[in-house]
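input
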Amino acid sequence: MNVESSGARVLESSEPLAVLAGGGTLPVVVATAAERAGRPVKIIGINGEADDHITNFTHEWVDWGDIGRLLITLRADKVTDLVMVGRIHSRPDYRSMQVDRAGEFIRGAVAGLFSGGDNAVLSGAVKLFESRGFRILGAHEIATELVAPAGSLTKRTENLEEKRDVVLAMEAAKTIGALDIGQAAVAVDARVIALEGAEGTDAMLERVARLKEVGRVPGGDQLGVLSKCAKPHQDLRIDMPTIGPGTVKAAVAAGLAGIAIEAGRVMIAEREETIHAADSAGIFITGVEDASGTTA
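output
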């Protein structure tokens, strides 16, 4: 995927854009990029997930069960292009979720969205919207500056031992990604010591910190590497992996030497702040080519 050319084509459009927003800064970054390019944009925030920053834009709030109202709103606003982006803290339980009256006709389809792994859930959401005439765009197609490039992004670069750990952790992350388990792994001293599960990257790094504290793995600061990559069959339009300042903070707390991310297939939220935090802590961030040797 050529991110820059794809983004240019998308941004040339003058059609209204909707951003279905979870938490974090990415929905606002996408909306800002769209407005800068002259596209009308509306953010639709998920209650309990999206941040209040979305209120600086044309916006509306919905609950998880407001599927019918969401579809009605999108059509009323003449929206055909939709970006789904942002952090989701709590995956809803479809068995107890109340679907609004306007969405009753697709209750079965909605219930099916929340069974299976993350890839299955997100693929189901895409199919639901696409089957109703919407085009799903990636956040990186609107805000192309989000995507990590290849090469070092920080003042500090990895040494030979750390490069070895980068490769080991990246291979482990790819392996669990193929099983739709997680997107990240940690290697310390030529040994993979943690794999990301449903708890997410930051919680995995908390586990790494505890392993060092109790002596299960070599301790000390700046030892070991976090690698994060996209799952082999991941739909990057709706679930491109992301790091940000919080990732750096968690990596430092875990005593790691740096963070490696898959170039062209991982986003960096709040890039300047993220890189500054890494430089201040003396750790590295580097973008590495994927297994096929390409960066996009």
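quick obs: Residues 291-296 have pLDDT under 50 and may be disordered.
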